UniProtKB/TrEMBL annotation:
It comes from Pomatorhinus ruficollis (streak-breasted scimitar babbler). Keywords: Membrane, Signal, Transmembrane, Transmembrane helix. The gene is Clrn1. It is a multi-pass membrane protein. One of its GO terms (cellular component) is membrane. This is CLRN1 protein. It holds the Pfam family Clarin-2.
Length: 232
């Protein structure tokens, strides 16, 4: 493949990696990982609420990796409550999983930046070591993609298997009991999925840059070869 096309491919991959790093960094700091609603089951049972009356007992909840907000509603109007995972909720959440998610987010951001740097180095410089060549590019892309997948798996298990939303809703609640009414992953979680897919795409771009196509051969190569053959 001509050098100009390889530069274009590596520049594209580098910019995609940089965008992923910035997107993941922005996602880590937001509260848009999970959105849902919680039902005050105790209050609903006390008044035997059903139908339209049930909406008076349904509050909202949203949170990220560091903080969040819930709206407590038990028939007397909503009361918002801000919370932080560190150190407020550290006793009730699966702390090892939560810290692992944050750690892998950090690794994803760092290696996405490293991948972007090496893509640009290969685009505008001459690779002279293995880590500057295709093997290194595959390595950085694979690490970033793997970290993204691990983040989604660990955070999904924390939310769904360990019932994270329900634990947060019942934090410091002695009288009322809340149950998860609905929950869905929000924009920041899907940003990590997009980052993983982009790094997988970058691996395909690296492979694509290594192909040699017939149109990439120089037009003068046949003429030069023929002239050499005539000399002998």
């Amino acid at each position: 493949m001509p050098a100009r096309q390889k530069k274009l491919i590596f520049c594209t991959a580098g910019l995609l990696s940089l965008a992923c790093a910035l997107g993941a960094a922005a996602a880590v700091g937001t509260q848009l990982w999970v959105r849902g609603s919680v039902l005050c089951s105790t209050g609903a049972l006390l008044v035997n609420a059903s139908g339209p009356e049930l909406h008076k007992f349904i509050g909202d909840i949203q949170y990220g990796l560091f903080s969040g907000q819930r709206v407590r509603q038990c028939g007397l109007g909503g009361r918002p409550f801000q919370f932080s995972f560190f150190p407020d909720l550290l006793r009730i959440i699966p702390a090892s999983i939560h810290v692992s998610v944050i750690l892998f987010c950090t690794v994803l951001i760092v290696f996405a930046l490293v991948a972007a740097g090496f893509f640009m180095l290969n685009a505008f410089g001459n690779p002279y070591e293995t880590l500057h060549g295709p093997v290194g590019l595959y390595l950085w892309s694979f690490i970033s993609c793997s970290c993204g997948c691990l983040i989604m798996i660990l955070f999904s298990s924390e939310v769904k298997i360990h019932h994270l939303s329900e634990k947060i809703a019942n934090f410091k609640e002695g009288t009322f009991t809340f149950k998860t009414h609905s929950e869905q992953f929000a924009n920041s979680f899907w940003t990590i999925l997009v980052c993983s897919l982009v790094h997988f795409l970058n691996a395909l771009l690296i492979r694509f840059a290594g192909f040699e196509f017939p149109f990439s051969k120089s037009k003068d190569s046949g003429t030069i070869t023929g002239a050499v053959d005539l000399m002998y």
